[in-house]
Amino acid sequence: MGSKWAKVWPPLMAMIAFLLVWQGAVFFFRLEKWFLPGPAAVVQEAISIWPRLWEHTAATIRLTLLGFSLGALTGIIVGGLLHLVKRVKLSVYPLLVLSQNIPIIALGPLLVMWFGFGLLPKVLLIILVCFFPISVAMMIGLANSDPRLMNYMQMIGANKWHIFRRLELPHALPYLFSGLKIAAAYSVTSAIVAEWLGSSKGLGYFMQLSSKGFMAPRVFAAVLITITLSMSLFGIIALAERWIIRWQPRKEGG
Amino acid sequence: MTSALEVREVHKRFGRGGAAVDVLGGVSFAVEEGEFVSLIGPSGSGKSTLFQLIGGLEQPHKGEIRIGGQVTTGQRGHIAYMPQQASLLPWLTVAGNVELALEVAGTAREEARELTGSWLARVGLESYAGEYPHVLSGGMQQRVSFLRALLTPRSLMCLDEPFGALDALTRMQMQQWLLKLWEANRRSVLFVTHSIEEALLLSDRIVVLSASPAVVIRELRVPFERPRSETLWTDPEFNRLKQEIYAQLSQGEPAAR
């Protein structure tokens, strides 16, 4: 228990110090709320409009979870298929990398134009953003299994399916989870962008509305919630990883 | 009677043109049914290459390999195998690893489970059945690895320097353990080793390879009665044979460059 606290203390202290400096600066320089609100004002504002804020938060959670799950599924399937069919990998992989260089700020309005203001373009945007790190992580994991184990499997005459199912796939799981963690953070921010671009609900919409109305405390409250969402999703995936990958010797504090 | 394994005039060359290296220069030998044959040779004499050929991972340049009388040159899935490193899959339990080897060889899942359970108990590993391999010591891992090969329903067991990575004491214990198990369950075994003592202690016959390009320079029947034990080391005949093989191996070595 003692060692756990030793790890939690330093970042916690830094966080508290940061908040104090922030609050202190706002107080000392007499900054206006619409210009830069202090953390206390942000929390106060969040509490006072909580029912509305929660409605928007719930919409963002729904959109994020839907987009992330579909994106993860797409990523896993694409990664697996590209690994199994080498020829497809060679031809499609560069195209995938290329697709990742399209700025989502350009892609978003196009998707809205093609698919309207409903759920579909937003979900598509999140899928497009988060399938890529997942499929890349998956492919790297699948392609890099231990050569000694691979030699053993081949020597005993294991077929392609046995090798995939028993050697490559389990080996790829830790890689897959790294990909999922990255994609989790991406999916929350893409949901915000999607809502910003065309929506009547969600934190992205709420942020846009508040910032146009010079209501900085509300923007900050929405940012705070976004960070919390992102970190929660990350945490859930880390927990799932610990629960699924049980064969590794536990690292200290890992 | 057909041999468990027949290697006929096998040549293997790596590379092309001027850079080509002959690794095997026409190797021939056989392992009879229920016989324990050791393959010994200077390092770099192509023993591992020979195993890759027998396992079907590589094609010989010339020559033929027969397992149980059938030509299996370049075909996989005819042998039970124990590599130098235990190579247990880290995400499978001890029992899971043994079961996997049986499943790959075509044993039904239920049967594999039963067989694994009863054998783990027989060799005193039942308390580790549900553990992941990383909690086991090197010696324990090799026991699981050997059991996995022993239970695989294939007529030939190929053991590739299975004790090479163990410390001297563990190695001696493992030799005794393997000797006892094998003498109780005579399987056809091809055993690669660097250790002359190990070969003499365990095998019925020893095949001595030359340095590369490898050819068989000697085949010798080990005359000791079974069951054997470590007291063999004090036998004068044991030491005489050891000297003899040692001399032959040094001869097979090319002169210092």
What class would the helix/strand composition of chain B place it in? alpha/beta
In the CATH scheme, the class of the largest domain in chain B would be Alpha Beta
- What is the arithmetic mean of pLDDT of chain A? 91
Structural domain count of chain A: 1
Total helical segments of chain A? 10
Q: Taking strands numbered 1, 2, ... along the chain, how are they ordered across the largest sheet of chain B?
A: 6-7-8-3-9-10
Which oligomeric state applies? heterodimer
Describe this structure in words.
The complex is a heterodimer of chains A (254) and B (257). Chain A is mainly α. Chain A has one domain (50-244): MetI-like (MetI-like fold), CATH 1.10.3720. Chain A is built from ten helices and no strands. Chain A has helices at 2-28, 39-48, 50-84, 86-99, 104-115, 119-143, 147-155, 160-197, 203-212, 216-244. Chain A starts with a helix and ends in a 10-residue tail after the last helix. Chain B folds into two domains: 5-78 and 156-252, Rossmann fold; 89-153, no CATH class. By secondary structure, chain B is α/β, with parallel strands linked by helices. Chain B has a six-stranded mixed beta sheet, with helices on both faces. A four-stranded antiparallel beta sheet of chain B has the order 2-1-4-5, covered by helices on one side. Chain B is built from seven helices and ten strands. In chain B, helix 2 packs across helix 3, helix 2 (94-104) runs parallel beside helix 4 (138-151) and helix 4 runs parallel beside helix 5. The interface between A and B is medium-sized, with 21 and 28 residues.
